[in-house]
Amino acid sequence: MTSTDELLVKEITVSRQSSGEERRLALHQIYVQVLERQPYAFERKQLAKIEADFLRNKIGVKRFLRELGHSEVYLNAFYYNSSNPKFIELCFKHFIGRAPSDQAEMRRYCDILMRQGVRDMITALLDSEDYSRHFGCFTVPHAWAEASYPSPRTFWETEVLLHELHGRRGWIVPTMVWHDLQLNCDGGSCRLPEPSLSSAPSSRTAAVISGSEALHQVLSTMGPQDLAAFAATLSTAERDKLRHLLMQSVQ
Question: Which residue, 118, 135, 194, 221, could crosslink 110 as a Cys pair with Cβ 3.0–4.6 Å?
Answer without folding.
Answer: 221
